[in-house]
Amino acid sequence: MSGQPMPCDAAEIRSLFLFEKLSAQQLDRLCGEGRVEQFDPGPVFTEGDPATCLYVMIEGTVIMSRRVGSDDIEVSRTSQPGVYAGAVMAYLGDGKPQRYMNSVRVPEPTRFFVLPAESFANLIHEWFPMAVHLLEGLALGSQTFQRAVGQRERLLALGSLSAGLTHELNNPAAAAARATSSLRDRVAHMRNKLGAIASGPYHGDALKALVELQERTAERVSKAPALSPLETSDREDELADWLGDHGVQNGWQIAPAFVQGGLDVDWLEQVAVAVGEQELLQSAIECLNYTVEAELLMSEIEDSTTRISHLVDAAKQYSQLDRAPYQVADVHELLDSTLLMLSGKIGPQVKVVKEYDRSVPRIPAYPAELNQVWTNLIDNAVFAIKSAGGEGTLTVRTARVHDRLLVEFRDTGPGVPAEIRGRIFDPFFTTKPVGEGTGLGLDISWRIVVNKHHGDLKVESVPGDTRFQVLLPLTATDLDTGPDALSDPAQEPS
């Protein structure tokens, strides 16, 4: 866009802080190569177009915005003379093709000093040769350093997740191993007891009844109800008394397993009637005890191996192993897998509440990238909660907001102070102690959500209620798949 040409006054140009140290000859050259233009209310330049000019405001008001999906989000509004935007990095030359990283418009007639990008680059190289080398090194070195630190942060996060996953896998694996060892012992005792019963002077009908009791007992164990601690204690006392009254030895040791297996006094009365012979009751009770314990141990093994299987599935879901990078995904599956992967870091002190709107549709996205966003936001929330005393609540909520999907992470930590809230998405800015944060977690999350998915990431915070909100398009957009989606620093108003 171009404005109305106006005379270039060297004295007026000198009043701008960007040019106040230039000589008269340099100011004359600026006026010769540049121009003053007045823009009526409307756009000055648009995000994504080739960066052809540097704009320095002389008088008026400037509004800077970034495109998020189909919306333009205002990020800055100022009337400060001398603010500049546009081709601010033209001095990098052809090695770095320049595009406007934001849009600028004016709400009132506004005058700019406009300098073509090529002229700006030539003047910088001619007038400040040493500064050019420093600026090039700073710009390119910062990007390289940012990529290296970002990669390092990803590796650290992967190491933390691996350690947590190993810990989570170890618990059910160890439980399954212990249960298997105990089960082998119970089966051996059962074989010995059955051998002793078979060799005893018992009638065939009694032995048949005992076998039937074993089958019915195994079925009863699989349907055992959950009891409260008080109910469990009372029932154990009842069973121990019954066993003692019927001459069964070590009844107090047998009663807990029977209660856990769902057996009660009525069931034992049926056992006594079915066995018929008092001499056989002791052996029958011991045999049934081995049956109950074996069933309970097999249930424990099943639970442990199922837990391992779920963890492996969660790891595959989290890493998106053997899946296309871009796909239509269920955001709830991604959230669940991330929460499970981070369960070791979350710990028992942090209560996790899920408020999922299951009616929201699947969305086109890069699931592995979104899992990295969830990881960063959950990690920050857990750190905030634990730093404020160690206990609190993390609430993960999903909802549909017009044509976008909202994923919200709410924690009960101390909150983000208002004076730093505008900087938390800046590269290398962190409030964590030295060695605990690189300051790239939120920056990377911003790039993934905003640059790569054309969504939005924002924060609302008061003490005890901090909410990071991720808004993602429900329908496919021209997602950014290039390397610059996560590596280029956004140019902010200066």
UniProtKB/TrEMBL annotation:
GO biological process annotation, one example: phosphorelay signal transduction system
EC number(s) from the headed UniProt entry: 2.7.13.3
Signal peptide bounds: none
Domain Cyclic nucleotide-binding: 18-124
Any one GO molecular function term: protein histidine kinase activity
Presence of keyword Cytoplasm: no
Domain Histidine kinase: 297-476
Enzyme class: transferase
Keyword field contains Nucleotide-binding: no
Catalytic activity, as annotated: ATP + protein L-histidine = ADP + protein N-phospho-L-histidine
Keyword entries, A-Z: Kinase, Transferase, Two-component regulatory system
Name used for this protein in its record: histidine kinase
Species in which this protein is naturally found: Streptomyces aquilus
